[in-house]
Amino acid sequence: MRAPILGVMACLALVHTPAEAAGKQVRIAYVEWADAVVATNILKLALEEKGYQVKTIPLAAAAMWQAVATGDADASVAAWLPVTQGAYYEKLKNRIDLIGPNVTGARIGWAVPAYSSLNSIEDLATKASEVDGKVVGIDPGAGVMKSSEAAIKAYGLKVKLLDGSDATMTSALKDAVRQKKDVVVTAWTPHWMFARYDLKYLADPKKSFGEAESVNTLARKGLKADMPEVYGILEKFKLTIKDEEAVMAENEEKGAKPEETAAKWIARNRATVDGWLK
């Protein structure tokens, strides 16, 4: 009877149950943008509740997509589509599993303080001097930067797009608002700066920045078969713009830790998280 018993045990070892999560690592790639930090930390804590060891991997946007495509990362919840990271999707769509949106109603563009006389990107053709001929951007590989370059060309603007980071961009915005000066920054929703400051997007009649976007969940090929419980959680993982912007604002407070603010959000939204984990 020993052989049949061993055979049954071997078969059971191939069946994925919640118990198999213990000690198994899930690797989540993300870009260090404020919204992605929030979503990734909330997902990390949710998966840890099911017994998984979760490793979060901060990468540039191109590297994030590549990591999921090669299997170096299991998933990401930071894929902006159809415009912002659309080029990465077109290149790698046959090598990844696009699960779908986890945040809807997102958008990208250029933003200015609400007191600015600028209302449209077209205004910069004659008023570039009001912002010192500059648009303050983030990391050069970001989709919003590529769209910004396209906008400069489409509108025939004589402005310089400054490379930087999320932190340097928001610092420039903070300084301008404090001094009641004009400034144009690359922007996206959700972002904590819209909760902190009174801002407006510049109209984009040529649609250089596209229409409404969504933030999507990606998985490596084979994850659904290898880790069905994780895949099921990824399918149900959803956040609202209001939720993300509130947690992002908390993360900007002195001494705040993203994992702690994520834990507070989970405590406030227990029923939602329980729905993901069923």
Count of helix runs: 13
Rounded mean pLDDT score:
91
Radius of gyration, CA atoms, in whole angstroms = 21 Å
Helix content: 40-55%
User: Ends: how far apart?
Assistant: 37 Å
| Shape call | globular
Low-confidence stretches: 1-17
Helix/strand/pairing category: alpha/beta
Q: What is the strand tally?
A: 9
Spell the H/E element sequence: HEHEHEHEHEHEHEHEEHHHHH
In this structure, how is the largest beta sheet organized? 5 strands, antiparallel
The fraction of residues assigned to DSSP E strands is: 15-25%
Condensed summary:
By secondary structure, this protein is of the alpha/beta class.
Descriptive overview:
By secondary structure, the protein is α/β, with parallel strands linked by helices. Helix content is 44%, strand content 21%. The chain contains 13 helices and 9 strands. Helix 2 links the parallel strand 1 (25-30) and strand 2 (53-58). Helix 2 crosses helix 12 and helix 11 packs across helix 12 (258-268). The longest helix is centred in the first third of the chain and has 16 residues, at 34-49. It is globular, with a radius of gyration of 21 Å.
